[in-house]
Amino acid sequence: MFTATANLILPSTTTGSFPRPRWFDVSMWGRPLDTCMLDVRFREKFQDAMAVVISDQERAGLDILTHGDLHVDEDMAGRAWHHYPLQRWAGFAGDYLQPEETTAPWLHYPPGTLLNEIYTGWRWPHVVDKIAHRPLDYAKLWRIAQGKTRKPVKFGTCCSQVMALFLDIHTPKYKDKREVIWDMAEAMNKELRALRDAGCRCIQIEEPTFHFMANTYGKNHEQVKFMIDAFNREVDGLDDVELWIHTCWGNPNMQRVMEDTSYANSIEIYLERCRGDVWTLEMKDRNQKDLELFTPFKTALKKKIAIGAVSHRVLQADRPEDVAGEIRKALEFIPAERLVVSSDCGFGRQGCNREIAFYKASAIAQGCNIVRRELGLATAYVPAADPVLQIDVVAGRDVTSAARGTA
């Protein structure tokens, strides 16, 4: 079901996380949100930071906003993106070094590399008991964000599959990792249903591992088929929600975790075999590789495709005309009414600074306007590009209201 994008052509958004304001120096560290909010300093900083992130996205001109992942702790390379659920659900304990022989073959890196430092520096809980849902407070987090804007707020969360990559089983209650993934999928489903019941109608599930695994083992591998079933269980019952599925090729501290990347073995999975309405792809950082895969689907696309038109790994702030060029390339293979324009991945998770993230986001909104005008469509107002609202206005420059919305 299309909700947030229902009446929009070339809607603009970003994937999720945003850099924190420098003064937002508190984290939750596994505590319940209610406990944190009893601290008046945390309460003020958290709500003010959320207001700032929402305001920045509105000023950038984005059509669909995110909550910025501000509930996720500010830790090494964004580990807390995985850990937020793991620290709160029943069945997990401790923080341990990942064993050398991980089940993910693409997570081995030599000493002297940043990825080796990240993956040997991260610590993970052990599975020590039956996994069971405990509240993650997604509904409250969404209400805090949505209460600060009239634009739709897309709520994103990592999925059970990607969390399971790093877990070790230390209990006889589980025979293998599949049982762990399935119970986590059921726990997440309870949280997502509560989020839906609170009124959220745009939910993004982040990083199911189909594209990694299908690229390595093939799309019909037994493990891939299981992951599809587990994903569909995780999002069961969300029929009245616009469901986004985010995919990229890794983003710990802005790093690409593998070089051999292709959606060729997973395009059918995302378009036809798993539930969802919008599929996001990392494209800008991969030079739009794999866009041609959509040629057979162009006239019959049921889902919408969100392309990354700016990279989260490059610190050069994109220009609107650069984004417009990426959109024109995508329109050769994806109809305008099925295309969403976003970033490759999030800007947070020990990523780029706030100013660069802001101008990348605004370039997305302004680039969409350029192409909308070329297609004879109405444009969206971008406050950041309004001549009247610049911090410093050159004397004599035409800053009439007629200029609004043209940049």
TrEMBL record:
One record GO biological process: methionine biosynthetic process
The Cobalamin-independent methionine synthase MetE C-terminal/archaeal domain, residue ranges: 174-351
SUPFAM superfamilies: UROD/MetE-like (SSF51726)
CDD domains, sorted: CIMS_C_terminal_like
Keyword terms of this UniProt record: Metal-binding, Zinc
InterPro entries referenced in this protein's UniProt entry, alphabetically: Met_Synth_C/arc, UROD/MetE-like_sf
GO molecular function, one term: 5-methyltetrahydropteroyltriglutamate-homocysteine S-methyltransferase activity
Gene3D superfamilies per record: 3.20.20.210
Domain of life the protein comes from: Bacteria
One Pfam family per UniProt: Meth_synt_2
Cofactor(s) of this protein: Zn(2+)
Name used for this protein in its record: Cobalamin-independent methionine synthase II family protein
Species this protein is from: Candidatus Acidiferrum panamense
